[in-house]
Amino acid sequence: YEKICRYIARGSDSVVVSVGYRLAPEHKYPAAYEDCLNATIHFMKNIEHYGVDPARIIVCGDSAGGNLAAAVSQTLAGRSDLPKLRAQILIYPGLQALDFNLPSYQQNQGVPLLFRERAAFYVLRYLNGDALHMQEVLEGSHIPPDMRLKYRKWVSPD
């Protein structure tokens, strides 16, 4: 990602900090999240050292990094001891593992690069390091009915 980060930094006249977080399956959740959160907090607490305007901090990530950027942004949203984030940029983020049968998964299940089964596989690897429950996840039986009802406003075919 170094080339991409350099490109973004030059093109946007920005300071880009790229976090080398620990990867699954060797490092199970929440290792990657903790790495990203700790790096972001350190950066924000030492912002004057980096010569960055505290009103212009953006958190960004793609794929699993998009998930981590969203989680870090939500965690920091209520912190009054740190500068407020200006924005978050999420590029094809993995944001939900409740339902792999939503229309986007069905319509794109055979489209490279991230097939439906591969997406479920990576979610399982991220969370617990193995893919023993792949079929249950693909069928949606890994979510209790009461939780499915609770979140259907946000995660449903509608």
Automatic annotation (TrEMBL):
<dbReference type="GO" id="GO:0016787">
    <property type="term" value="F:hydrolase activity"/>
</dbReference>
<dbReference type="Pfam" id="PF07859">
    <property type="entry name" value="Abhydrolase_3"/>
</dbReference>
<dbReference type="InterPro" id="IPR029058">
    <property type="entry name" value="AB_hydrolase_fold"/>
</dbReference>
<dbReference type="InterPro" id="IPR050300">
    <property type="entry name" value="GDXG_lipolytic_enzyme"/>
</dbReference>
<feature type="domain" description="Alpha/beta hydrolase fold-3">
    <location>
        <begin position="2"/>
        <end position="131"/>
    </location>
</feature>
<dbReference type="InterPro" id="IPR013094">
    <property type="entry name" value="AB_hydrolase_3"/>
</dbReference>
<protein>
    <submittedName>
        <fullName>ADCL4 protein</fullName>
    </submittedName>
</protein>
<keyword id="KW-0378">Hydrolase</keyword>
